[in-house]
Amino acid sequence: MEAYMSSIGSKLQMLYTSDHASVVSMNLFVALLCACIVIGHLLEETRWMNESITALIIGVGTGIVILLISGGKSSRLLVFSEDLFFIYLLPPIIFNAGFQVKKKQFFRNFMTIMLFGAVGTLICCAIISIGAMQIFEKMDIGPLDIGDYLAIGAIFAATDSVCTLQVLSQDDTPLLYSLVFGEGVVNDATSVVLFNAIQSFDLTNINAVIAWEFVRNFLYLFLTSTMLGVLTGLVSAYIIKKLYFGRHSTDREVALMILMAYLSYMLAELFYLSGILTVFFCGIVMSHYTWHNVTESSRVTTKHAFATLSFVAEIFIFLYVGMDALDIEKWRFVSDSPGTSVAVSSILLCLVMVGRAAFVFPLSFVSNLSKKSPNEKIGFRQQFIIWWAGLMRGAVSMALAYNKFTSAGHTNLRANAIMITSTITVVLFSTVIASFANLISHRIRIGTSYTGSLTTVFGLMTKPLISILLPHPKYQSRSLSFSSDPATPKSVTVPLLGEGQDSLDDLGGRDIPRPSSLRALLTTPTHTVHYYWRKFDNGFMRPMFGGRGFVPFVPGSPTERNPPQNQWH
Q1: For the whole prediction, is pTM greater than 0.85?
Q2: Is Disulfide bond among this UniProt entry's keywords (predicted)?
Q3: Which residue in 12, 211, 363, 458 has a CA-CA distance of 20 to 30 Å to 142?
Q4: Closest CA to 400 of 305, 490, 276
């Protein structure tokens, strides 16, 4: 009996120690998050570092300290969890991207964005997979089958939609900001859908039937995920419009918006769809309908709540990526051949560059064929910036790599360990280099001289890039000017993200003429879609689901002081 009680006591002591260690880890991690925000704010004026770079550097520094304290056993405060990333951190980031997007700019460039984000991602994935298969088999890094190589293509085809926006300024280059932002979100969704499709098929003995099933499954996931997001957004708009919680409690309508947004993502995961696509289009629909159905105070609250959750999640991800980069367990299996790991990382970086070039320039040419105005066409400098901006890899790539090549964050296979360490190397290198290039280009653009600790190699690489990446002032002013063509929408370079929510009813800023001939229909397909969409939206969608101009006039409603304006014209 005494031995039994002693055993129970020791187990309780271990449990208490484990719980206390978790509390200590969480305290330190939250303190580091606060430090990232404070330091990022202090460095805001210097523009040397943003929160992303700050979080990466603090994460690496903390990892070094923990590694030294633990005697080389661990460098992490928290163990990486795919559930933590995909269920808790990624949804607020993607939803806020859809919620804050200026829809008229996004949908005016929708075909180009889909070309880059969907078709381009497939091309990039194919090139990376084929290149890795041809080269890695000769290097003999370990047993990898065709499914592994296709997964590598999907992993490294995923750009970082968070870091990508650091490369451009929405004020100086609004059209490019629109294209890069849209491509980033669609690219992430396509990569995850493609990765899941690859995981669900046995591709070792691929044939025409399996290939067709694979393509069909991919299209099914893509379309159904989008429709689920739209449906969830419309349901939230209809419920809030009919019940109008704001007349009694604004807390209820704010809570319902947040929960419905999260529900869209969880429903997608429940039905094995793409949560990224679902929550993104749910955000677009909720900003177009639901957001206009709540009280004015709830609009302010939800807008800042979603933005804050997204901001904290981004910092959390970058902090963890920096800390996890020094995890000794991952590097132990490649310590006997560091040259192989460096070679694999270099090859993957080269394949990423080739893969992006293989679709950015050809698809830009295809997109330009449908543009009438020269101001709407994507010039070579802009194409080069789009290529450069998409070279960064981030948390999505890391999460997919963990999913494929590790079990509970670790692996005992040499080939898998090499792929994990190579992914970490590519993510850190591409993020830091590209972000610093952006910050330096900002300084040079405004005429600020530099005295710093940049290496000669980095300086030699950055200056020629700046002369290509940055458009000249004359070119910028031309791209910001309104089109002189009366049949063309008012401006194709309105900033994508702004302080207020815009609405699809403002597409083009004026009445879009109805196409009078088949030639007009083919030469201005975007204008045609906008014309018929506005008629359908104003005639059917808004009366049923609400939105700007159709919010019911109820005491205590947001339209009590400002009666609804007729948006039919």
Answers
A1: no
A2: no
A3: 211
A4: 276
